[in-house]
Amino acid sequence: MAEVPRDQRMWNALAMLGFIALFFAAFIWVVRSYNVGELISLGWFDLIVIALAAQRLTRLVTNDKISAFVREYFQDPDGDGGFAKPEKGFRRLMCEFIECVWCTSIWAALFSLVFYLFGPIGKFGVLLLAISAIAMIGYNFSQALARLAHK
Fold this sequence. Notes:
Blueprint: H1 6-33, H2 36-40, H3 44-62, H4 68-73, E1 76-77, E2 83-84, H5 90-99, H6 101-118, H7 120-149
Antiparallel strand pairs: 1-2
Helix pairs in contact: 1-6, 3-6, 3-7, 6-7
């Protein structure tokens, strides 16, 4: 494993602290806005919807063409018409965050949960992402079946 430059460690630590701060801010908002028993009583349907939304949001950020401009914003042109990660700094942190599905999914899960609890418009957005995830799963399944049928 390559050595992480010292200044990059600082950016990684700041990102972790930022996530922790955002986590606790979201937690405080949820506890103040909801009866804790109501929060604990989220059922399996809620959990599945939030998980599917987080999966879809993760895919949207890390892979989909529609958000390529966001990924490219943090990258440097490589001279061959493509893009490369910067050597160091905040932009490198963002590139590493965006390309790491595990990293992005933690943030996506937090946002999906908070938006789901935000009210009707938040639930609508999370449901939209969840339905899109189900559609993607169905599409991938049908593509896999088609590949198997052509073998």
